[in-house]
Design brief:
The structure holds 2 protein chains of 2 kinds.
Chain A lengths: L24 E6 L12 E7 L6 H20 L5 E7 L7 H9 L4 E5 L4 H14 L3 E3 L15 E3 L4 H15 L5 E5 L3 H14 L3 E6 L8 H9 L4 E5 L2 H13 L5 E4 L6 H7 L7 E4 L6 H11 L7 H16 L5 H9 L2 E4 L2 E4 L11 E7 L2 E2 L5 E3 L1
Parallel strand pairs in A: 2-3, 2-4, 4-5, 5-6, 7-8, 7-9, 9-10, 10-11
Antiparallel strand pairs in A: 1-3, 11-14, 12-13, 14-15, 14-16
Chain B lengths: L2 H6 L1 H29 L6 H20 L4 E3 L5 H32 L4 H20 L1 H7 L7 H4 L6 E2 L2 E3 L3 E5 L2 E4 H23 L1 H11 L1 H6 L4 H26 L2 E2 L3 H16 L4 H22 L4 H15 L15
Parallel strand pairs in B: 1-3
Antiparallel strand pairs in B: 2-6, 4-5
The chains are: A alpha/beta, B mainly alpha.
Chain lengths: 380, 333
């Protein structure tokens, strides 16, 4: 390279990466008409969860459920209730600042959320110290309710309940006698896989850990086939689950593949292709009943999705507390603690840790290259 | 630790490890050749590979549609050849673009190597994010809906609709060797031999070796260094395109950050074998692929990278310039 450059290039090439900055922060678009009568003070429910970002669709499902409950309540209420939505993008890094904002807002009487386990663990202390009651429609990590945060509740079965049900399904329904347990070493995955492994006892013949982002699973496939296992349980998310089942089938393995709610997504089938057929994916939630789905469509203009029913139920518990004349956070929290009723998602009551007392885990089947999200089987 | 498992399944673990290692090796060639002529690590080479994987999937979606089906290797041979050409063209074009935009302007201005390195890392991020934002990009020109099959869920996994179902060809030590693994290994070896012979025997290959040895003398002897460097990038891109096709045969799914892990592994393979050395890249890739599988078998899959990198450090302690440790310039015809 000793050619001297006599002419400098006139124009510099600029690589502009078009990054659309999505606005984040609070969105109180629905705070309208939160006080109608003269004696009414403004009161709001808050929602904290992902409204944009990778999991934004789930948060929108939740917000729609809450919106429906609030709208139904406001139809014949003396004092109307508003809904303030806080978009955490599902991130444990963004949620704490929003939590501070929520506890600083005196008009907020309760929180539906946080949406995910990570953000729940990151914000639980803030809400607990401020005494603000919360009910999560979707955070399933076992450790959240072990923190002693007495204001924290959830209307969904935790990973212990799911893991125990999954193990039962594998032995009783599938009839598996040799189950190989695999996970991707993340908190959720390891938690779920460990419960399955412990519940299975001697039926779990082997255990392996893969990495998130790993694409070649050949060593793991060799282990599964060498153990002559008739079922695999995988704790993790749909990408690795899809690749794993595909490579197992490519190696000629014929057993039953089961995974949890992290993989219960139509994208699982996209990754796995025809190899996904016969896979069983469990989730602690059932699809919305038809009449409820129609109401959601009517009220919000969007389809009901995963967690819409749980969010509707969670919001209704707060609204019933208001109806019963409770306005102070402490009274509302006591009301929730002793609440017992039937929601759209099933019977709801809480144990002393804030976990739902009875929850049903559902098994979703993959058939003919599609995940059947309509007709799951309840695992008894 | 489970040594008996390794011993009992050594054939299977070796063959699947070799197949993965062969893909590492093909990508490693791009790192090693650019290093040979420029003494520069082209960190954006991982994206050259990633764009190739998308080219393969796009060809399949374009010809076949989005319905997922199972196929044998033989049944898709025609489509595979077509996607191989598409992937090579795509990867070569990206590599050429990189050289033109991220390197040549800096080298012309005699910028320090560090600047070129930063420019490479920047180009790597830009290319990866561009793939992850492809739905927005086609949205700007109003083709978002027409190209929905190619760009929707741009940050999610993108899967080849045709799953290639491996067939057992013959049995060794109780393990049925699969045609896909054989094809991947043989195809990589052929590509390597072709490249090796090209560099050793052709006029252009002589130019590459001359620039690698001494750019100034090469220029005095009438070698056009700019052309040689561009050609080196393109050759590396073609090899990455071949690697991308084999990867899609074996794995079948890609995403906008799929290049990262394979890029790191391929770079490691290049260093392991002796950076700047073509045959070293092959050896490094194969050793790394097999070592990962053995490590996963003995200690558990989560340990495979630890095993691979401990091996790398041990080898570099004994042979600081890699296993074969000789430079591109010293390769003689």
């Amino acid at each position: 390279m000793n050619r001297t450059t006599r002419v400098w290039r006139a124009g510099a090439v600029v690589l502009a990466a078009g990054l659309a900055l999505t606005a984040c922060g609070s969105d109180d678009s629905s705070g309208d008409g939160s006080s109608s009568g003269g004696d009414c003070t403004e009161q709001n429910l808050a929602f904290l969860g992902a409204l944009t970002g990778d999991a934004g669709a789930l948060g929108v499902n939740m917000a729609n459920g809450i919106q429906l409950a609030v709208d139904e309540y406001n139809e014949d209420a003396e004092c109307e209730v508003g809904l303030k939505k806080f978009d955490s993008q599902g991130s444990p890094d963004k949620a704490p600042a929003l939590a501070t904002e929520i506890v600083g807002d005196d008009t907020i009487i309760g929180l539906v959320g946080p949406g995910f386990s990570g953000e729940s663990l990151a914000t639980g202390k803030t809400f607990f110290e401020a005494g603000l009651p919360s009910i999560s429609p979707s955070a399933t990590n076992v450790t959240i309710t072990e923190q002693g945060w007495t204001t924290w509740h959830r209307v969904i079965g935790n990973d212990n309940a799911q893991g125990a049900a999954d193990a039962k399904y594998l032995t009783d329904t599938v009839g598996a006698s040799k189950v190989y347990v695999i996970d991707d070493a993340q908190d959720y995955s390891k938690g779920l896989a460990t419960v399955v492994k412990d519940t299975l006892g001697d039926t779990a013949v082997g255990y392996d850990e893969i990495q998130v982002g790993q694409t070649d699973m050949s060593a793991t496939v060799t282990k599964v086939t060498a153990a002559k296992s008739d079922a695999v349980f995988y704790g993790g998310y749909y990408t690795e689950a899809g690749l794993l089942v595909k490579q197992l089938r490519q190696a000629g393995w014929r057993g039953t593949f089961m995974s949890g709610d992290g993989a219960e997504d139509p994208a699982f089938v996209k990754v796995a292709g025809q190899a996904g057929n016969g896979a069983v994916l469990s989730a602690p939630a059932a699809p919305a009943p038809e009449d409820f789905a129609a109401k959601v469509k009517d009220d919000t203009g969007s389809e009901a999705g995963l967690y819409t029913t749980q969010s509707y139920d969670a919001a209704n518990i707060f609204l019933e507390a208001l109806k019963a004349g409770n306005t102070e956070p402490k009274d509302i929290n006591d009301f929730i603690g002793s609440y017992s009723g039937d929601g759209v998602s099933g019977p709801i009551s809480f144990d002393d840790k804030g976990d739902i007392e009875t929850s049903t885990i559902y098994a979703y089947m993959v058939k003919d290259g599609e995940l059947d999200t309509e007709n799951p089987t309840a695992i008894e | 630790m489970n040594f008996s498992f390794l011993v009992n399944h050594i054939v299977e673990l070796s063959i699947t490890g070799l197949a993965l290692g062969a893909i590492y090796a093909l990508i490693a060639l791009g790192y090693t050749m650019v290093y040979g002529v420029l003494q520069l690590i082209n960190f954006a080479h991982s994206e050259v590979f990633m764009y190739g994987t998308f080219a393969v999937a796009w060809v399949f979606v374009f010809v076949h549609g989005t319905t997922s089906v199972n196929q044998t290797l033989g049944g898709t041979a025609g489509l595979l050849l077509l996607s191989l050409l598409a992937a090579m063209a795509m990867s070569a074009a990206i590599a050429m673009l990189l050289e033109r935009v991220a390197y040549r302007p800096l080298l012309k201005r005699k910028a320090p190597r560090l600047m070129a390195l930063i420019s490479a890392i920047g180009a790597s991020f830009a290319l990866s994010e561009l793939m992850g934002l492809r739905d927005r990009v086609v949205g700007w020109v109003g083709l978002r809906d027409d190209l929905d099959n190619y760009v929707s869920k741009a940050r999610d996994v993108y899967t080849n609709p045709v799953t290639i179902q491996p067939q057992t060809v013959f049995t060794v030590g109780g393990y049925g060797v699969k045609d896909v693994d054989i094809m991947v290994i043989v195809a990589s070896l052929l590509m390597m031999v072709a490249l090796d012979q090209f560099v050793r025997r052709t006029r252009f290959g002589r130019g590459i070796r001359a620039v690698a040895q001494d750019p100034e003398s090469a220029a005095l002897m009438g070698v056009n260094a700019t052309r040689v460097i561009r050609g080196t990038f393109i050759l590396g891109g073609i090899m990455a395109g071949a690697a991308a096709t084999l990867y899609m045969v074996k794995i079948g799914s890609t995403r906008q950050n799929a290049g990262f892990i394979f890029g790191v592994k391929a770079f490691t393979a290049a260093v392991l074998g002796g950076i700047g050395n073509l045959r070293g890249a092959l050896l490094g890739g194969l050793v790394l692929g097999v070592a990962e599988n053995y490590g996963a078998a003995i200690f558990g899959t989560q340990w495979k990278d630890v095993v691979a990198f401990v091996l790398l450090i041990l080898i570099l302690l004994v042979r600081p310039s890699g296993i074969l440790g000789e430079s591109l310039g010293k390769a003689r015809a």
